[in-house]
Design a protein that fits this description.
Layout lengths: L7 H12 L4 E4 L1 H7 L8 E4 L3 H11 L2 E3 L3 H4 L1 E6 L2 E7 L1 E4 L9 E4 L3 H6 L8 E3 L5 E3 L3 H7 L1 E2 L5 H7 L2 H13 L2 E2 L6 E4 L8 E5 L11 H12 L4 H10 L6 E6 L2 E6 L21 H11 L4 H9 L11 E2 L5 E2 L3 H15 L4 H12 L3 H10 L2 H18 L5 H20 L7 H20 L12 H4 L8 H13 L7 H31 L10 E2 L6 E2 L1 H9 L1
Parallel strand pairs: 2-5, 10-11
Antiparallel strand pairs: 1-2, 1-8, 3-4, 4-5, 6-7, 8-9, 12-13, 14-15, 16-17, 18-19
Helix pairs in contact: 8-9, 8-10, 10-11, 11-12, 11-17, 12-14, 12-17, 13-14, 15-16, 15-18, 16-18, 17-18
Length: about 550
C-alpha cells in the first residue's frame, strides 16, 4: 500500500468513472514521483472507458473536455475544477515507418496490457485510490536501485518510438539514474577519474531519429539541460550518438533534416591547460552546466559557452607549450547563434543566449582591473555597460540588469568548473565582482529615456523653450557617459542649465551681431561703399566731393 493523498480533482474524476463501472488508475510519471517522495506536476489517468465514454462521464458532471487527441490516440483532456488531466483508454499500439506516431492503436483488454506498451519500468506503474500499486515490470525495485531500464526489449522499444532514446537521456538527467541494458551494446565513455564517467554507455541506433520533429527533440533537450543531473544526461546524449544524430524540421511546407547538437562532439577528450583546468573541454562543460541554476537561458549558455574551443582557428599553445583558446568566446557565440537558429528558437531568445556566450569571459578583465584598483574596475564595467547599451539589444535598464544577472550566473558556474572553483577566496571575489556589475547596471546605465529618474510632471517644469525629446536624449547621453548621475535633482538642474546656456549663447550671438553693425561708419544717407583700391569705406558725399577736385 502506498500512502498518498491525491488532489480532490483526481479523486472526483476516478470516482466518476467507477460510478459507471469503468476502471481508472493514476499512471505514469505521477506514480513515479509519488514513490520518489515528490509532488507530481500533473496526473494522467488510464481507464477502461472509451474516449466517447469518458466524454459522456465528464458531460454528466459538467466538466470541460477537449477531444483533440481522442480520435488518434484514445486520449481526452478533462478539466475538473481547473485541473486538466489526460484520460487515456487502455490501449496497445504498433509502429511502422513513423519514428514517433504509432501506425495502429487498439483498445487493450486490461491495465496490465496497457502498461506493457510504456517506455520505462519506472513509468509503467499504476495506483488506485486505495493506494494499491500495480507494478508488472519491477518499476519500484528499479526506483530503489536507481536504474533506468526499458519495458521489455530495449531495441524494440526504441525502434517503436525513436524519441524514447532522448527520453532515456532526459530521465538520467532528471533523476541521476544509471541506464541499464544487459543485452544492448555498451562501452566506457569519459574519464574514469570524474563524476561524468559512464562505465556502460549505450550505443543507440540513431537511424530512426531523422523522422522526429525538431519541436519534440527540442522539448526533451530543454528538460534534459535543466535537470538536477544535466551533466550525466548530456554525457549519455553525446556518448550514445544522439547528439550527432539528425531530426527533421518543416519550414514553408518543405521538410529537411538538421543535425541536433554536433557542436559538442569535438570537445570530448579536448585537453586544457592543467594549470587552470581539471577537466577536458567536454567534462568542463558538463560541470559548468551542473553548477548553473536550472534556468533555461543560463543552462543553454553554459552548454554553448566553450563550443569554440579546440577548433583550428582558435587553438594554439602558450609559451609553456600548454593549450590556449584565446578569443574562443567569439567563435562560441557564432556557433551558438547558428545552433539555436537551426533548432528553430525565436530570434530574441537566440540573441539573448548568444549575448551571454559572447561575454562570458568579460569578468577576467574586470577582476584584473580590480587588482589594480577598484576605481579602475568600476570604470571598466561602466565602459562595457555603455557599449552594451549602444548595441540596442535591450530596451530598458531593467532588461540589461537582468541580462547581467544571468551573465554573472554563467560566469560563476564556468569559473566553478575550473580549479578556481575550489578556491573560496577567488569565488567570493567573483561573486562580489558580479554583484557590483549588476548594481551598476541597475543604477548607473539607463538604456532609454524612460529609465531616467524623471516623470511626466517634471516635464512641465522644463524651461518653456525646451524640446522635451531633445532634452531627454541630452540627459541620457550625459548619464551614460558617466558625466551626470541618474538622480532627480541632478537631472533637473542639468536640463535647466542646458537651456540657460543656450539662451545665454543666443543672446551673446545677437549682441555680437548688433555690436558689429553699430561699429561700421555711416554716410549721410546711411549707405556705405568700399573703395576698390583701398577697401576703405566711403560715404556717397565723400565720393562726390572727391570727384569735384
Amino acid at each position: 500500500m502506498v500512502k498518498y493523498r491525491f488532489p480532490f480533482q483526481v479523486v472526483k474524476l476516478i470516482e466518476a468513472f467507477q460510478e459507471h463501472n469503468f476502471e481508472a488508475y493514476v499512471v505514469g510519471g505521477a506514480v513515479r514521483d509519488i514513490l520518489l517522495g515528490k509532488h507530481p506536476h500533473d496526473y494522467d489517468i488510464a481507464t477502461s472507458a472509451t474516449p466517447e465514454d469518458a466524454i459522456a462521464v465528464a458531460k454528466e458532471k459538467g466538466w470541460q473536455t477537449i477531444d483533440k487527441l481522442g480520435k488518434n490516440f484514445g486520449t481526452v483532456l478533462i478539466v475538473v475544477k481547473g485541473m486538466p488531466m489526460e484520460v487515456t483508454t487502455f490501449r496497445g499500439e504498433r509502429y511502422d515507418k513513423d519514428s514517433h506516431r504509432p501506425a495502429e492503436i487498439w483498445k487493450a483488454r486490461n491495465l496490465q496490457e496497457d502498461c506493457k506498451r510504456r517506455d520505462f519500468t519506472i513509468n509503467a506503474m499504476a495506483l488506485d485510490l486505495k493506494g494499491i500499486l500495480y507494478d508488472f515490470h519491477g518499476g519500484k525495485k528499479d526506483l530503489e536501485n536507481r536504474v533506468l531500464r526499458t519495458v521489455g526489449n530495449a531495441k524494440k522499444r526504441f525502434e517503436e518510438d525513436a524519441l524514447r532514446m532522448f527520453r532515456a537521456c532526459r530521465f538520467v538527467a532528471e533523476l541521476g539514474f544509471d541506464y541499464v541494458d544487459e543485452k544492448g551494446k555498451t562501452y566506457k565513455f569519459g574519464d574514469p577519474k570524474t563524476e561524468y564517467f559512464l562505465p556502460k554507455c549505450p550505443v543507440f541506433n540513431v537511424s530512426r531519429c531523422g523522422g522526429l520533429s525538431v519541436e519534440r527533440v527540442k522539448a526533451e533537450l530543454e528538460k534534459l539541460i535543466c535537470g538536477d543531473y544535466a551533466g550525466l544526461g548530456l554525457a549519455m546524449l553525446v556518448g550514445s550518438g544522439l547528439a550527432g544524430a539528425q531530426c527533421q524540421i518543416k519550414k514553408n511546407g518543405v521538410i529537411s533534416t538538421i543535425p541536433i547538437l554536433t557542436e559538442l562532439l569535438h570537445l570530448v577528450g579536448l585537453k586544457q591547460n592543467p594549470k587552470f583546468h581539471q577537466y577536458d573541454g567536454f567534462e568542463h562543460t558538463l560541470r559548468a552546466v551542473d553548477n548553473g541554476p536550472q534556468n533555461l537561458p543560463v543552462r543553454w549558455a553554459l552548454v554553448c559557452h566553450d563550443m569554440g574551443k579546440g577548433l583550428p582557428n582558435i587553438r594554439d599553445v602558450n609559451k609553456e607549450g600548454q593549450p590556449r583558446d584565446a578569443g574562443h568566446e567569439k567563435e562560441s557565440a557564432r556557433m551558438t547563434m547558428e545552433l539555436l537558429q537551426r533548432l528553430n528558437y525565436a530570434p530574441k531568445f537566440a540573441k539573448y543566449i548568444t549575448f551571454l556566450v559572447a561575454h562570458h569571459m568579460r569578468f577576467a578583465g574586470f577582476m584584473h582591473n580590480e587588482h589594480t584598483g577598484k576605481e579602475r574596475a568600476e570604470y571598466g564595467m561602466l565602459h562595457w555597460l555603455r557599449d552594451v547599451a549602444a548595441e540596442g539589444l535591450f530596451k530598458h535598464e531593467k532588461d540589461m540588469a537582468d541580462a547581467c544577472t544571468d551573465l554573472v550566473k554563467v560566469y560563476l558556474a564556468d569559473m566553478g568548473a575550473t580549479k578556481a572553483g575550489k578556491d573560496m577566496s577567488i569565488m567570493a571575489e567573483g561573486r562580489e565582482m558580479g554583484a557590483k556589475l549588476i548594481q551598476l547596471a541597475r543604477t548607473k546605465m539607463p538604456i532609454s529615456t524612460g529609465d531616467l529618474n524623471l516623470n511626466s510632471t517634471d516635464f512641465a517644469k522644463f524651461p518653456k523653450e525646451a524640446n522635451i525629446k531633445n532634452a531627454l536624449n541630452y540627459l541620457l547621453r550625459r548619464v551614460q557617459s558617466g558625466d551626470l548621475p541618474n538622480e532627480h535633482n541632478s537631472l533637473m538642474k542639468a536640463v535647466v542649465a542646458k537651456y540657460k546656456r543656450i539662451e545665454r549663447e543666443k543672446n551673446e550671438q545677437e549682441n555680437n551681431k548688433n555690436s558689429a553693425a553699430h561699429s561700421r561708419p555711416r554716410g549721410h544717407y546711411g549707405r556705405s561703399v568700399v573703395s576698390a583700391s583701398s577697401g576703405n569705406v566711403a560715404t556717397d558725399h565723400e565720393r562726390k566731393s572727391a570727384g569735384t577736385k
